[in-house]
Design a protein that fits this description.
By secondary structure, the protein is mainly beta. The protein has one helix and four strands; from the N terminus they run ββββα. It is globular, with a radius of gyration of 12 Å. It comes from Halogeometricum borinquense.
Amino acid sequence: MSLSGLCQVCESREATHTCVQCGTAACDDHFDRASNLCVRCADRSGKGDISPASSEVDGDDVHRI
């Protein structure tokens, strides 16, 4: 799929990816390829600190608000 337009996160760079969760168009800096999520969704899913260790976290973790 081809994207054209600006990243919906920073609104300054060209969007090259689409978040599989929310559909946000994101540039390379605001997209996590490992999870196919924009940084906003990655942060909500507990994967905001993108690192090799964080990719091992599964969906069973419960976060208190």
